[in-house]
Amino acid sequence: xxxxxxxxxxxxxxxxxxxxxxxxxxxxxxxxxxxxxxxxxxxxxxxxxx
Length: 50
What we know:
This protein is α+β, with helices and mostly antiparallel strands. 28% of the residues lie in helices and 20% in strands. The protein contains one helix and two strands. It has a two-stranded parallel sheet with strand order 1-2.
């Protein structure tokens, strides 16, 4: 990526009591549909964000 390009990232924000693998599937589907390569899944419902 050159300095003139803008990085595009899909950010999935969740607030569930526990992490679920479905979150990853949703992010991957979004990446495929948008032709992007990077997604971040954040779950704010747990005690620690990891």
